[in-house]
Amino acid sequence: VSVRPRRPGPLRAAVIGAGSIATHHIVAWREIPDVEIVAVADIDHAKAREFASRHGIDPAHAYGDAATVIDAEELDFVDIASAPDAHAGQVELAARHGLHVLCQKPFVGSMDEARRLIDLCAAQGVRCVVNENWRWRPWYRRIKALIDAGTIGDVRYAAFTCHRDLVLPRPDGELPDLLRRQPYTADMERLLLFEWGIHLLDVMRFLVGPITTVEAAMDRVSPLVRGEDKAVINLGFGSGAVGLVDISWGSRIRDDRRLIRGNVEPFVVEGDRGTIELDPHVGDILYVTTEVGTRTEEARGGLSHADAYQDSFTACQRHFVDSLRGGGPAENDADDNLNALAATFASYESARSGGRVTL
Ligand SMILES: NC(=O)c1ccc[n+]([C@@H]2O[C@H](COP(=O)([O-])OP(=O)(O)OC[C@H]3O[C@@H](n4cnc5c(N)ncnc54)[C@H](O)[C@@H]3O)[C@@H](O)[C@H]2O)c1
């Protein structure tokens, strides 16, 4: 499907959900002259109005719900940045109005829902793309290029190990970082993996290929959240490679290990002829070890870590627009995102049943 704008000029879009991540979206849209954000909606209408005035959108075009903005405005697509449980209804609404969709992760709450919405979008002739920006972080692009160039041979193993204290009670009695930034997370029954680890599974899928089996264990230590704050997941890939995702938001941990420095998480990928390590705690962050010795790559390409965080949104959203204009598939079309989504749900099933689950 390629987009013919309803009027000449840039694609017209509305942002739905005016929370913390929408700010990164709007900064990205400003870098993309082919898109004009003409409206915003949030169930907290005052928040939508405040977002509009802060970001140069006429406050008369700030709405208190998705249905009204979709009815009232002449749009080409919607940029869904609302809380996860609102995504499915808003994707459906947009598709039924013939609007293309860019939807934040986690896409929706079940595989049946995901497939139903992908089919609906196809039937309506609209594109449905998941705003899964993680794989656009410059270091993952560099690792992908190194793997594709054969630098480490065939990939056999990949692992994320990443422990933080994001949901633990603080000594000053203030809410921990996550609950302040994304208040809805306190009530999520599926928390760490569904809300965050899904990024890492998508990076795994991007770098190693489709995930085919999972075996998971989960736990919770924080009294402030409902869902799991620890998960250990063994992965099997279609290629025969194996992987590990070992993550926690409920770890008391030494200060200099506590934070993922600058949004870089420790990651290792081993091939049969070498290893690539992403190490946020050491200067140049990306290391390649091969049979001919050890060398260091500069992964940041001159970007500060903060720039790289924003840059991954900009690159992801630019890719969405390019794919709309060109009519070709996007890397992160919702049906490509199904593998990370399926691995996520299968991990919950595995943690419940205690067994390995085949996707
Ligand atoms: N890609 C990333 O790096 C990244 C990082 C953080 C969050 N996210 C995702 O972005 C989305 C939003 O997260 P956030 O951090 O901005 O959370 P947030 O709590 O700051 O914002 C969510 C906003 O959605 C609004 N909302 C909830 N239900 C709505 C509905 N039915 N209609 C309209 N608005 C509604 C809320 O009022 C709130 O303003 C989530 O899906 C989250 O997983 C992605």
Overall morphology: globular
Structural class: alpha/beta
> What is the C-alpha radius of gyration, as a whole number of Å?
20 Å
Topology order in helix (H) and strand (E) letters: EHEHEHEHEHEHEHHEEEHEEEEHHE
Low-confidence stretches: none
Helix percent reads 25-40%
Largest sheet: 9 strands, mixed
The number of E-state strands comes to 15
Bound molecules: nicotinamide-adenine-dinucleotide
Instruction: Give the neighbour order of strands across the main sheet.
Output: 14-13-12-11-7-10-9-8-15
Keywords:
359 residues, 6-stranded parallel sheet, 9-stranded mixed sheet, alpha/beta, binds nicotinamide-adenine-dinucleotide, 36% helix
Describe the structure.
The chain has 359 residues and is α/β, with parallel strands linked by helices. The chain has helices at 20-30, 45-54, 66-72, 87-96, 111-124, 138-148, 177-181, 192-208, 255-258, 305-326, 334-353; strands spanning 11-16, 35-41, 62-63, 77-80, 100-104, 128-131, 155-163, 211-219, 230-237, 242-248, 267-271, 274-278, 285-290, 293-298, 357-358. Helix 4 packs parallel to helix 5 (111-124) and helix 5 (111-124) packs antiparallel against helix 11. The radius of gyration is 20 Å and the shape is globular. The mean pLDDT is 92. The protein binds nicotinamide-adenine-dinucleotide.
